[in-house]
Design brief:
69% helix; mainly alpha; globular; 13 helices; 356 residues
């Protein structure tokens, strides 16, 4: 049986569906329809009693640590919420005429789950952490085909600009459009339902989970990611290989997402680092798109003169962006890793985290 609670007054616009089951087995086998949105089970901020007493949950804290919340439990809550968000997006993609937006949202949420998992290194068993990470990675990869073709199309448009387009460029664009349409068609509702079920299992495994206080280990994990990102930046600066920038991109995303989650409990100046990491991750993402586009061009049977022009356009855009990434990276990673980690640890050790 399902009940739809629709609120008014200060809670106007909020609707919550409550579903009752006769057994845990029945609950585990339930596959919600796409319109349900993400599951809220176990998040006390959305319980009827909490909504009545405290009002609408603060939006900025929905995927961040909340004041007074034990850190490891907060990470489990956010992993649950992000995984549930991803599963809901996958279900919507299965019913949408154009699934691009929902697929993008699902993949982005899964990346945030994986970043949060890295905070639990040494807190939960390594085998579990790696298995969960693989599950999320596989789910994201299964959605990537259409999205990858669409990104190539958008990147090609930025590279060639508004000027006259080469015949080879027009053929390339037409091929990419056909590939994107074909791969969107491969996202069948049945296969998407299986992907959503796998992601639901991830959410279920962290929902309401209790872990011992682990602020020191978690602070060390943030510092470890920061140190790895700083090293990746130096490698990228010494050699222009795409793989070096790709590795750095992943570490920059981790830094952005982890500081975003921890932000309510950190000193104010960490907000600047988070914003800088966000801009850096976006630029490194654009750089990665150019590298993927260049690799794709190599496999196209275009006229040699057209290929030379297109390669030159891609290389010029890439060189400019790579220089910008290095300069922004120096700003983002300006603190020494030990100092960065110590400051994170000092903030998280405070028993009553809150804005500073």
């Amino acid at each position: 049986m399902a009940e739809l609670d629709t609120y008014s007054g200060a809670l106007d616009g909020i609707s919550v569906v409550e579903v009752e089951f006769e057994s845990e087995t029945q609950a585990d086998g339930f596959r919600p329809p796409a319109w349900f949105g993400r599951e809220l089970t176990g998040d006390r901020a959305w319980a009827n009693q909490t909504l009545a007493a405290e009002g609408r949950p603060e939006k900025r804290l929905e995927f961040r640590m909340r004041p007074g919340e034990e850190l490891a439990q907060a990470i489990c809550r956010v992993i649950t919420a992000r995984a549930s968000q991803a599963a809901a997006a996958v279900r919507r993609a299965g019913e949408a005429e154009d699934s691009a937006r929902d697929v993008h949202e699902a993949r982005k949420s899964l990346k945030k789950v994986r970043s949060a998992l890295r905070l639990l290194r040494g807190v939960i068993p390594d085998d579990e952490r790696r298995t969960t990470n693989t599950t999320c990675g596989d789910a994201s990869a299964s959605l990537s085909g259409a999205r990858d073709a669409e990104v190539k199309l958008a990147t090609l448009g930025r590279v060639t600009g508004d000027g006259p387009e080469l015949d080879g460029g027009q053929r390339w664009r037409a091929d990419l459009e056909a590939e994107a349409a074909s791969r969107r068609g491969n996202l069948r509702p049945e296969s998407l339902a299986e992907v959503a079920a796998e992601i639901d299992n991830v959410a279920r495994s962290f929902r309401g989970r209790e872990l011992p206080p682990s602020s020191e280990a978690i602070a060390g994990n943030v510092g470890r990611g920061y140190r790895r990102g700083r090293k990746a930046m130096k490698r990228a600066g010494k050699g222009d290989e795409p793989e070096n920038f790709h590795v750095w991109r992943k570490r920059a995303k981790d830094l952005r997402y982890q500081l975003e989650f921890l932000e309510p409990g950190l000193p104010d100046d960490f907000r600047k680092i988070r914003k800088s990491a966000e801009e850096l991750a976006d630029q490194l993402g654009d750089l990665h798109d150019l590298d993927v586009l260049a690799e794709d061009l190599e496999g196209r049977g275009l006229d040699s003169s057209d290929r030379e022009v297109l390669n030159g356009q891609i290389a010029a855009a890439r060189d400019q962006l790579a220089d910008s990434c290095i300069e922004l990276g120096k700003k983002t990673y300006s603190l020494k890793p030990a100092r960065f980690t110590n400051r994170i640890g000092e903030a998280l050790a405070d028993p009553g985290p809150g804005p500073r």
